[in-house]
Automatic annotation (TrEMBL):
This is Glycosyltransferase 28 domain protein. One of its GO terms (molecular function) is hexosyltransferase activity. InterPro entries: Glyco_trans_28_C (IPR007235). Residues 248-333 form the Glycosyl transferase family 28 C-terminal domain. The keyword Transferase applies. Keywords: Transferase. It holds the Pfam family Glyco_tran_28_C. The lineage of its organism: Bacteria, Pseudomonadati, Thermodesulfobacteriota, Desulfovibrionia, Desulfovibrionales. It comes from the Bacteria.
C-alpha cells in the first residue's frame, strides 16, 4: 500500500512527531511523508520517504503565513507548493491520502489541499481513500460556528475516515468541536499516539552526559522553541540561583528558537560546568528515562513523553489558547503533574527543588497510548473495505 502523508507544522513540532510515529507504525507500507515546515534533524524509518515542500510557517502570534527561506515571496512559494503537491499525486497515485489536522486546522493551506482533494474525488488518481489525522484538543474559535460548518462540509465531502488521536476519557472531540454529531463519516478514537523510549538505556545516557550516580539531572525543554524562550530563561536563572553542586541541567531550547535568544542562554550558562544547552535531541524520549525531573511546555508530544517515561514534571502551558492548559489539567488527574503559571516563573527554584525531590511516577495510569498502532490498523482496514 502506498500512502501520502501530509503534515504541515507551523509553530511547534508536535504535529511532525505525532505524524512520524504513525508513519513508523505503518512499517509494512510505503509512506511518502510530505512536509512543508522546517525539518527537525530526526532519523526516518526505512519505510518512509521524505518529500519537502517549499517551507512556510507562522510567527508565535499566528500573524499569517511567511516563507521559511529568507528573500522569497509568499505567493511565489504558495504557487510552487501547490504545483509540487499536485505533481506528487499525478506521479505516485497513492492508495491513501493521510492529512494531519486539516480541515480542523490549517485553513491557510486550502490553496494546495483543495485542488488535490477535488481531483481525488473526481477519480483522477485512481481509488484514493482520504483520512484525517487529528490531535486530542482543538483551538477555540469565536466566529459564530462558521469554522465548524466549514470543517463538517469538507469532512463529509472529501474524507473517508477521521482518526482522533486521544483517549476519550481524557479528551473527547465533542468537548472542543460542538458540531461533532454532524460528521457523517466514520470517526475512531485511536488512543494517544505516543513515542516509546528505549529500554535499559538510563545508565549509558547518564554516563554519556557525565552525570554521576549521586547527581540529579533536570531536563528543560521548549519543544519547537518559538514560544518557549521565557520558560527557558526563567528555568536557567532559577537553576543558577539554586546553586547545588549535586544537580545538573540539560536544556533543549528547540530548533526554532531565535538565534539571539539561544546565544543569550548560552552566554548566561557559560560559566557553569553543570549546565549544558543544546537546540535539539533526536533521542529526547530516551533522555527522559535518564533524567530525574523535567520542566517543559505542555504540547501533545511532550505530555505523551511524560506519560511514557514517567518522569516527574512541571509544565508551563502556552497561553495563546486553551489547548495546552486543558490537556495538562486533564492529565494531572491521572499522574502527579505540576502546572506552572506566570507567578511560578518568579519562584522557579521552589518548583525545581520539589521536582528533584520526587520519585519517578507510576506507569499504571491507565491512559491509552497505543494510538499509532491502532491508526495504522484502521488505515490498512480501510483499504480492505
Amino acid at each position: 500500500m502506498k500512502i501520502i502523508h501530509y503534515c504541515q507544522h507551523v509553530l511547534g513540532m508536535s504535529h511532525f512527531f505525532r505524524s512520524l510515529e504513525i508513519a513508523k507504525a505503518l512499517d509494512k507500507e510505503e509512506v511518502l511523508f510530505v512536509a512543508g515546515g522546517e525539518r527537525p534533524n530526526q532519523p526516518l524509518p526505512p519505510n518512509v520517504e521524505y518529500r519537502q515542500l517549499p517551507g512556510l510557517c507562522m510567527n508565535e502570534n499566528f500573524g499569517g503565513l511567511m516563507p521559511t527561506e529568507e528573500g522569497r515571496e509568499l505567493e511565489e512559494v504558495k504557487t510552487e507548493r501547490s504545483a509540487t503537491l499536485f505533481k506528487i499525486f499525478e506521479e505516485e497515485k497513492p492508495d491513501v491520502f493521510l492529512i494531519e489536522l486539516f480541515p480542523f486546522g490549517r485553513k491557510a493551506f486550502r490553496f494546495e489541499l483543495l485542488p488535490v482533494l477535488d481531483a481525488v474525488k473526481e477519480g483522477r488518481f485512481g481509488d484514493v481513500k482520504v483520512v484525517c489525522s487529528l490531535r486530542d484538543i482543538l483551538v477555540e474559535r469565536n466566529d459564530g460556528g462558521k469554522h465548524e460548518a466549514r470543517v463538517v462540509k469538507y469532512l463529509n465531502k472529501y474524507f473517508d475516515l477521521l482518526l482522533i488521536h486521544a483517549d476519550p476519557k481524557i479528551a473527547a472531540l465533542d468537548e472542543t468541536f460542538q458540531a461533532f454529531k454532524q460528521i457523517e463519516i466514520p470517526c475512531e478514537y485511536t488512543g494517544f499516539a505516543a513515542r516509546k523510549p528505549a529500554e535499559n538505556k538510563r545508565d549509558k545516557i547518564r554516563a554519556d552526559l557525565e552525570v554521576s550516580a549521586d547527581e540529579k539531572l533536570l531536563i528543560a525543554s521548549a519543544g519547537g522553541g518559538k514560544v518557549g524562550g521565557p520558560l527557558m530563561q526563567a528555568t536557567l536563572e532559577s537553576f543558577i540561583r539554586l546553586n547545588s553542586e549535586k544537580c545538573r541541567l540539560l536544556m533543549l531550547s528547540g530548533p526554532f528558537l531565535d538565534d539571539d535568544k539561544y546565544a543569550a542562554l548560552c552566554a548566561t550558562a557559560k560559566p557553569y560546568k553543570n549546565i549544558t544547552i543544546q537546540r535539539f535531541a533526536s533521542d529526547f524520549t530516551d533522555l527522559l528515562t535518564a533524567g530525574d525531573a523535567m520542566i517543559s511546555m505542555a504540547g501533545y508530544n511532550t505530555c505523551m513523553d511524560i506519560l511514557t517515561s514517567c518522569i516527574p514534571s512541571a509544565v508551563f502551558p502556552f497561553a495563546q489558547n486553551h489547548e495546552q492548559r486543558m490537556r495538562a489539567e486533564r492529565l494531572a488527574k491521572y499522574i502527579p503533574l505540576k502546572i506552572l503559571d506566570s507567578t511560578d516563573m518568579l519562584i522557579m527554584t521552589t518548583a525545581i527543588s520539589d521536582l528533584l525531590g520526587q520519585n519517578r511516577n507510576r506507569s499504571d495510569h491507565g491512559i491509552n497510548l497505543k494510538g499509532a498502532n491502532k491508526s495504522a490498523d484502521l488505515i490498512r482496514n480501510l483499504r480492505k473495505i
